[in-house]
TrEMBL record:
CDD domains: ABC_MetN_methionine_transporter. This is ATP-binding cassette domain-containing protein. The lineage of its organism: Bacteria, Bacillati, Actinomycetota, Actinomycetes, Propionibacteriales. Belongs to the ABC transporter superfamily. Residues 2-241 form the ABC transporter domain.
Length: 327
């Protein structure tokens, strides 16, 4: 479990002070893939640096497991970082070392015996799908292969948490999908907690169990992804499954429907027409598979020939079919 409590990071003093992270609190359950989504300048990278204790927060605390990182000495922090793995956007591999030697590097730093290092490297080469490329140098590897080396290196010391800072931003779309699927498989097989910092909504949509949305240094929304996507009022859902804004509805008769556990195979829309005599116009929407579940959001305009309808009854009908609604 990662607990972030009232975390603030301010750079500079006086009139020149800049608050990069502003009173952020987060809870990341153990074993989950947790995404932190936001635009450039939202404070994501500064938050990541505080989570990994590369930056000391101005105030607040970061606790991983039972260890409060903000209370540790310099030597205590070095020891705590052995339980963290880090994956970078631009790989940060050592060009003079082979793939296998890059993976082994953190184990060498920790003084792990050579035979144990070789066994662990062989295990990780198989895990990330680099058989046959272990003796290649970074200059001989594709971008996706370099990131696989980076993932294996981050896992070498059996970390409790794997931090990924824009880990797929330098990759093409097809390779991005492969790397994300690999991270999800690693999470499934090892149980390692993964925290992803990203500006790409597809990263969150494809593999995350839960997520937080950052803007202007603050977390404006967080929670289990399926719950957020089913919430018609969710700002994060608007980013992940956009349905268009109210400008699509000049008559101001539209509602937003959200469904995550049911509703995708039920004739809900036709049921509205039959039961309530409503005319339904679909203005925008999306249906995706997220975390193994079909989820969707629709913006629909509901009108009645007589000019009005019982909104409470409509909301109750939709709730019976596990569809949430913002009327």
């Amino acid at each position: 479990m990662i607990e972030v409590t009232s975390l603030t990071k301010v750079y500079g003093t006086g009139d020149g002070a800049v608050t990069a992270v502003d009173d952020v609190s987060l809870s990341v359950p153990s074993g989950q893939v947790f995404g932190i989504l936001g635009r450039s300048g939202a404070g994501k990278t500064t938050l990541m640096r505080c989570l990994t204790a590369l930056e000391r927060p101005t105030s607040g605390s970061v606790t991983i497991g039972e260890v409060n990182l903000t209370e540790l000495s310099a030597s205590g922090l070095r020891k705590a970082r052995h339980r963290m793995g880090m994956i970078f956007q631009h790989f940060n591999l050592l060009g003079s070392r082979t793939a296998a030697d890059n993976i082994a590097f953190p184990l060498e730093v920790q003084g792990v015996p050579a035979a144990e290092r070789r066994a662990r490297v062989a295990e990780l080469i198989e895990l990330v799908g680099l058989q046959g490329r272990e003796h290649a140098f970074p200059s001989q590897l594709s971008g996706g292969q370099k990131q696989r080396v980076g993932i294996a290196r981050a896992l070498a010391a059996h970390p409790d948490v794997l931090f990924c800072d824009e880990a797929t931003s330098a990759l093409d779309p097809a390779t991005t999908e492969q790397i994300l699927d690999l991270l999800k498989e690693i999470n499934r097989r090892t149980g390692v907690t993964i925290v992803l910092i990203t500006h790409e909504s597809e990263v969150v949509r494809r593999i995350c169990d839960a997520a937080a949305l950052m803007a202007s240094g603050r977390v404006v929304e967080q929670g289990p992804l399926l719950e957020l996507l089913a919430d018609p009022d969710s700002r994060l859902a608007d980013i992940l499954l956009p349905v268009g804004d109210v400008s699509l509805d000049p008559e101001h008769t539209s509602v937003v429907l959200g469904f995550a556990h049911g509703g995708t195979t039920e004739p809900v829309i036709s049921g509205l027409t039959r039961r309530f005599g409503l005319d339904v116009s679909i203005l925008g929407g999306a249906v995706e598979t997220v975390a193994g579940h079909k989820v969707g959001r629709l913006r629909v305009a509901l009108t009645h020939p007589d000019g009005g309808y019982d909104r409470d009854a409509v909301a109750a009908y939709l709730a019976e079919h596990e569809v949430s609604v913002h009327l």
